[in-house]
Design a protein that fits this description.
With 224 residues, this protein is α/β, with parallel strands linked by helices. It is 41% helix and 23% strand. It is built from 8 helices and 12 strands. The strands form 3 sheets. Strands 2-1-3-4-5 form a 5-stranded parallel β-sheet, sandwiched between helices. Strands 6-7-8-9 form a 4-stranded antiparallel β-sheet, covered by helices on one side. Helix 6 packs across helix 8.
Length: 224
C-alpha cells in the first residue's frame, strides 16, 4: 500500500519509512505543505500521514485545503499535540484518525488499515482472484495451499491490480505506485514487472490473468 508521509523531521521520517516498509507500506515523503500538494496532485495514495508542525504552514491549513478540493483520501494526523481540544479540532477539520507522538509503529500500521476497512478500501483481510488469494496483513500470495514467491514490487503491483480487478489501471498510476513520484525508472520498467508477475501467475495456474490494454494500461481478469 502506497502512502504519503508529510513530515519535516528527516530523522523521524526515515525511521518511520524504515519501520513501515517491512509491513507492506511504500512511503513517499513530503517535507512541507507545498511538496505535499505536488505529491497529492499526481500520486495515487491509499492514505496520508500528516504531521501538523510543517515549516511553511500549519498542518491543519493543509488539511483544510485537501478537503476543500473534495479529496477524500484518508488522512491520519501525527502530532505531539495530544490535548482533547487539539484532537477534536483535527477531526473537525477532516482528519480520519489522530495518532499522538510518541506512538508504537504497530499501532501506526494498524490505524490506516482500520480506516480503509471502514471506508470499504479493505474487504476483510484478503483479496481473491480465480484460485489466487492475497493476505493483506501477512502479504502472502497463494494459489490453493501453495505460496508464490514475489518481490516487493511484484507484490505491490499485484495488490494494485487486485483492488481494481476488472478495471484498467493506467500505466502512469502503476508507475507512481511502484516507484513513487520522481523515482528513477526506465521507459519499460513497469512492463518488466508486469511480465514477471504475469508469468508467475500463469505458471501457478492461478486463474488470475493480467491483460495489457493497449495505449491505456493493465487489467487483471479473474477466471473461475
Amino acid at each position: 500500500m502506497r502512502v504519503l508521509l508529510i513530515e519535516d523531521d528527516r530523522e523521524l521520517a526515515q525511521a518511520l519509512i524504515a519501520a513501515l516498509a517491512p509491513r507492506g507500506f511504500a512511503v513517499d515523503l513530503a517535507r512541507s505543505g507545498d511538496e505535499a500538494d505536488a505529491y497529492l496532485q499526481h500520486g495515487d495514495y491509499a492514505a496520508v500521514l500528516l504531521d501538523l508542525g510543517l515549516p511553511d504552514e500549519d498542518g491543519l491549513t493543509l488539511l483544510r485545503r485537501i478537503r476543500a478540493r473534495s479529496d477524500t483520501r484518508p488522512v491520519l494526523i501525527l502530532t505531539a499535540r495530544g490535548t482533547i481540544d487539539a484532537r477534536i479540532r483535527g477531526l473537525n477539520e477532516g482528519a480520519d484518525d489522530y495518532v499522538v507522538k510518541p506512538f508504537d509503529v504497530d499501532e501506526l500500521h494498524a490505524r490506516p488499515l482500520a480506516v480503509l476497512r471502514r471506508q470499504g478500501g479493505y474487504i476483510g483481510r484478503s483479496l481473491t482472484c480465480g484460485r489466487l488469494s492475497f493476505d493483506l496483513e501477512t502479504r502472502l500470495v497463494r494459489v490453493a495451499d501453495a505460496a508464490i514467491a514475489l518481490s516487493v514490487r511484484e507484490t505491490e503491483l499485484l495488490e494494485l491490480l487486485l483492488r481494481r480487478a476488472g478495471n484498467v489501471v493506467p500505466k502512469r498510476i502503476a508507475e507512481d505506485h511502484l516507484f513513487g513520484l520522481g523515482g528513477e525508472l526506465g521507459s519499460n520498467a513497469v512492463e518488466v514487472y508486469v511480465h514477471r508477475l504475469r508469468k508467475k501467475l500463469d505458471d501457478a495456474d492461478s486463474g488470475a490473468r493480467i491483460e495489457t490494454v493497449r495505449g491505456l494500461g493493465y487489467m487483471i481478469v479473474c477466471k473461475p
